[in-house]
Amino acid sequence: MSRPPALSTTSFAILSLLAVSPFSTYELARQMDRSLGRFWPRAQSKLYEEPKKLVAHGLAVGEAGRTGRRPRTVYAITPAGRAALAGWLAEPGAGPQLEFEGLVKVAFAENGSRADALDTLAAVRAWAVERNADNLAIARAYRTGEGDYPGRAAQSVLAGAFLTDYYAMVARWAEWATTQVEGWPEQPADARLDPAVLDEVARRADWA
Amino acid sequence: MSRPPALSTTSFAILSLLAVSPFSTYELARQMDRSLGRFWPRAQSKLYEEPKKLVAHGLAVGEAGRTGRRPRTVYAITPAGRAALAGWLAEPGAGPQLEFEGLVKVAFAENGSRADALDTLAAVRAWAVERNADNLAIARAYRTGEGDYPGRAAQSVLAGAFLTDYYAMVARWAEWATTQVEGWPEQPADARLDPAVLDEVARRADWA
DNA sequence: TTCTTCATGTAATTAGTTACATGATTGA
DNA sequence: TCAATCATGTAACTAATTACATGAAGAA
Q1: What is the chain A residue with the closest CA to B104?
Q2: In chain D, which nucleotides are within 7 Å of a protein Cβ?
Q3: Binning pLDDT at 50, 70 and 90, where does residue A57 land?
Q4: How does pLDDT run across A158-204, given as a tens digit for each residue?
Q5: Which of these ranges, A23-32, A46-55, B198-207, has the smallest mean pLDDT?
Q6: B44 touches strand D (CB under 7 A)
Q7: A71 has which bridge partners?
Q8: In DSSP terms, which residues pair with A64 in a beta bridge?
């Protein structure tokens, strides 16, 4: 019996959700939306595909049902799935990987106008403020006992705190960078760096 | 004349490098390694592919040469390329997108042991410390006038500062999370959350 | 009864990575 | 002259996204 495609981080992320509770694909998508998707974002269609892989490996079972005439599948983790998950958790896992288009634009701002760079930074800050508001709303829900899966709060709060710190860091950086760019001439290519700024940044890096 | 595949963020990221100076593919790979790759990571082979797309669009030209008997191509941006780049910079661009396997493991730590979670957090902290050291070394090189492309220092430092703050944030979070997990019982699933922690995190989020 | 949103899935396409192959250069 | 590293590229593969199609349920 030939093993189907190997399991990826995405597979285990989905399996982790199923370890919380059985879910239909749509419910998985909602969980992805509120939490997991912030640090392991995947398109909807993936969520239809991965559980099938888990089933093929015996790590989950799919129970077929119906909503009216439409087919609908609810997936649940198996004991083998829990074992596989435990094995996966025993490996440390990769560090955060960033993909930040806005920063690419800032880093090469000399090819555009000063106003472009300021707009980009404003958008970055707005992004962080908005994400933070969502995140804060979730934290407040937990505080009033309305959070999802309160039995998992000790774990959830670790991820929530990461996001909190992350959004705050992004916003503060955008504010700082804005003050820098405001000091530039109209042509960003003519901007010269005050060496004192390098010292300041080096100091910020001196925590290890 | 049918247009070849549309330009992606990756295309413009490469084009931005070519705006700094003409580069061979290998030199592009080195630039990717030292800076751009930290916030727009791509595999080597992409760097052989994308410039061809840029040439097909008239945004770059490739000059064929040789190293001994081996062919070698050096790419340079064209005036049309500079114009396209300026157009791209006028759009704000996407916010940072995170993909963080270690955090997935922490967020679902109840399926493994407490020691697993602590190991994962230690690996995350080590990751941040190492990246920070690289980044700091680059900052110091600029300070002593040995940085690459000193004319671009005003732009480079903005990206450098982002990474500095980012690595510091990751390390500090890992340290904090470690103290939390140290307070857990042997079975992470039994860990209960002190509501005061929620308040603390909410306060950290209250900057907007 | 019609519009909107919730819900369920598949198919086509593309972006990106891994693996491979090999020449050139340098230093032991 | 051999090994290690620098350098240049292609081919095969896969992970992931976008686009599409449509049924069910609830609100106006």
Answers
A1: A13
A2: 7-12, 14-19, 23-25
A3: very high
A4: 999 999 999 999 999 999 999 999 999 999 999 999 999 999 998 99
A5: B198-207
A6: yes
A7: A66
A8: A73
Picking from B36, B127, B165, the nearest residue to A204 by CB comes out as B165
Does the CB of B135 fall within 7 Å of any strand D atom? no
The answer to whether the CB of B54 falls within 8 A of the CB of B14 is yes
CA distances for B171 relative to A95, B121, B162, B191, angstroms = 11, 9, 14, 23
Q: Which residue of B17, B35, B103, B113 is the best one to mutate when testing the A interface, meaning the one whose CB has the most A CBs within 10 A?
A: B103
C-alpha to C-alpha distance for A99 and B93, rounded to whole angstroms: 11
CB < 7 A to strand D: residues 26-45, chain A: 41-45
Assign 3-class secondary structure to A118-138.
HHHHHHHHHHHHHHHHHHHHH
pLDDT higher than 70, residue B104:
yes
pLDDT tens digit string along B76-100?
A: 999 999 999 999 999 999 999 999 9
- Which residues partner with B23 through β-bridges? B75
Residue B82 has which token pair?
Answer: 């500079």
Is residue B97 within a helix (H) or strand (E), and if so which, with residue range?
strand B97-99
User: Tell me: the pLDDT tens digits for A120-164?
Assistant: 999 999 999 999 999 998 888 888 888 889 999 999 999 999 999
* pTM of the shown model: 0.93
C-alpha dist (Å) from residue B34 to A142, B47, B168: 42, 15, 19
What's the CA gap between B168 and B20, in Å, rounded? 29
Residue B7 and residue A36: Cα distance in Å, rounded? 30
Question: Which of A93, A168, A188 is nearest residue B105 as measured by Cβ atoms?
Answer: A93
How many angstroms separate the CA atoms of B129 and B167, rounded?
Answer: 7
Hey, what are B59's tokens?
């945004």
How far is residue B32's CA from residue A109's CA, in Å, rounded to a whole number?
A: 17
Return the pLDDT at B3: 56
- Please report where in the chains the tokens 């084009």 appear, as a residue: B15
Residue recorded with tokens 């690289």 = B134
Note the helical H segments in B35-185: 44-56, 79-89, 101-107, 114-143, 153-182
